[in-house]
Design goal:
Strand content: under 5%
Order of helices and strands: HHHHHHHHHHH
Number of helices: 11
Distance between the termini: 78 Å
Largest sheet: none
Helix content: over 70%
Structural class: mainly alpha
Radius of gyration: 24 Å
């Protein structure tokens, strides 16, 4: 009888310990997201993709897992899959600026320049202080033959982040192509100054 009582108490004790160490599903998701982010940072894209897929098996609407899956696919150069993942993110959260931006990058890489421009503009609408968004937009516009608009976008990028040399340099290239050599020289000079600050 004493032995049965002891086993019963032990069972209750173990149950309490188990419950104490059980994680809330949201906390568990955060742990998975951190683990996936670490894999992406190590360029272990296959591991990240596998982990994302496991998370999504238990929660098909996990926005962060879809986003990280898109990033991992992009890292693995699986463009169609990455596009699909970022579209899913935007189905679940249309105001995710980073997903619009990454989708724009993918469209740019696959030659869909009109779609890239639209995606970058939407990202900027949601986060208007991001110089990198304006820079990406300017590059897409330049490739799309919209040099005047590209100059506007790149000028905005240089105002938001004056210490980033590549923004000034790209602006200088377009000015030079447009025959605006004085402005090109000025932009290249600013690029050189920004590079020295960074070094």
């Amino acid at each position: 009888m004493k032995e049965k009582f002891s086993l019963h108490v032990l069972g209750l004790y173990l149950d309490k310990i188990e419950r104490a160490f059980m994680l809330d599903p949201k906390d568990l998701s955060k742990l998975h997201h951190k683990e996936i982010a670490a894999a992406i940072n190590r360029h272990a894209y296959d591991a990240a993709i596998s982990s994302c897929q496991k998370v999504l098996e238990s929660d098909r609407d996990d926005i962060e897992a879809h986003y990280q899956l898109g990033v991992a696919y992009l890292g693995s150069r699986m463009m169609a899959e990455a596009i699909s993942s970022f579209k899913k993110v935007l189905d679940l959260d249309p105001n995710r600026a980073g997903a619009h931006y990454r989708l724009g990058v993918l469209y740019d890489k696959t030659g869909k320049l009109d779609d890239a421009v639209k995606s970058f503009k939407k990202a900027i609408e949601l986060e208007p202080k991001r110089a990198d968004f304006y820079y990406a937009l300017g590059i897409a516009q330049d490739k799309n033959g919209e040099q005047k608009k590209a100059i506007e976008s790149l000028s905005k990028a240089t105002k938001l982040a004056p210490d980033v040399d590549k923004y000034h340099y790209r602006l200088g290239l377009i000015y030079d192509q447009q025959g605006q050599h004085d402005k090109a020289v000025e932009a290249f000079k600013k690029a050189s100054e920004a590079e020295e600050v960074a070094a």
